[in-house]
Amino acid sequence: MITVIVADDHHLVRKGIRGLLEEAGDIEVVAEAEDGQQAVELVERHAPDVLLVDIAMPRLNGIQAAERIRDLGLPTRAVILSMHSSRLLVRQALRGGAKGYLLKRSVTEELLLAVRAASRDETYLSPPVSGIVAEGYLMGQGVGQPASPIDQLTSREREVLQLIAEGYTSSAIAERLRISTSTADRHRANLMAKLDVHDIAGLTRMAIKYGLVFLEE
Questions:
Q1: Which residues contact 86 (CB under 8 A, 6 or more apart)?
Q2: CB neighbours of 119 closer than 8 A, spacing ≥ 6?
Q3: Would residue 47 be called left, alpha or beta, if left means φ above 0 and alpha means ψ between -120 and 50 degrees?
Q4: Per-residue DSSP letter, 151
Q5: How far apart, in whole angstroms, are the C-alpha atoms of residue 169 and residue 164?
Q6: What's the CA gap between 206 and 48, in Å, rounded?
Q7: I need a surface site. Which of 91, 121, 173, 206 has the fewest CB within 10 A?
Q8: What is the rounded CA–CA span in Å between residue 54 and residue 179?
Q9: How far apart are CA 56 and CA 53, in angstroms?
């Protein structure tokens, strides 16, 4: 039996995906998460084979959740669900350790194929996404090459940038990440220096432009 955690900030979407997966017979959904941080915590608790995670999640987006799981050395494989098929996001997901990138408009069979492939430590990409990746390689843009200013940031800096763009103050960021306010302020200053922006509005624009937060999904 393949064990899965479903992470999406929409309750009805989670229930729909859960139903589709459990109808397959060889897949069990062991937990559901409504944000990226909760998804990571549930993965630590349940150690499922696969985390099926929406890319546009509060606190940690889907790519950052995949990175966190990889950095913690957990065996769970992440599959990203997204409405967005941009080359930048696909590259970020694969660089972050995701074993799949599935478009939300995909049919049920693709969802099952992706989960089963990830459970075998294989990579599954929706056909349109596969074309994007292949085109990138032909253009000399391999997965491991930097694609945007965001790529120079550490995982923690990307996490802080997302929270800033979501409207959190330094004290609120410090509380959520269990760091001091001065450390949160230092991350903010480092972000401005690395990204060559000089205010919160500029950081927010960068986060939106490079797919750390989404205006709508």
A1: 132, 211
A2: 2, 49, 50, 77
A3: left
A4: G
A5: 7
A6: 33
A7: 121
A8: 26
A9: 9
Task: Provide the residue-wise pLDDT of the chain in tens; the chain has 217 residues.
Answer: 999 999 999 999 999 999 999 999 999 999 999 999 999 999 999 999 999 999 988 888 999 999 999 999 999 999 999 988 778 888 888 888 999 999 988 768 899 999 999 999 999 998 887 766 655 554 455 555 555 788 888 888 988 998 998 889 999 999 888 899 999 999 999 999 999 888 998 899 888 888 788 765 4
41: its two tokens: 């915590």
Q: Are 55 and 85 in contact (CB under 8 A)?
A: no
Q: Which residues contact 34 (CB under 8 A, 6 or more apart)?
A: 7, 8, 9, 11, 14
For the record, the structure tokens of 23 come out as: 């109808």
DSSP calls for 154-165: -HHHHHHHHHHH
Structure tokens at 22: 């459990």
Write down the residue that tokens 């999904």 correspond to.
217
Burial classification of residue 81, based on how many CB atoms lie within 10 Å of its CB (0-12 exposed, 13-18 middle, 19 or more buried): buried
Taking the alpha carbons at both ends of the chain, their separation in whole angstroms is 31
What does the DSSP 8-state code read for residue 152? G
Neighbours of 55 (CB within 10 A): 27
Classify 119 in phi/psi space as left (phi over 0), alpha (psi -120 to 50) or beta. Answer: alpha
Place of tokens 């060889």: 26
Angle between helices 87-95 and 127-138 (to 10 degrees): 90
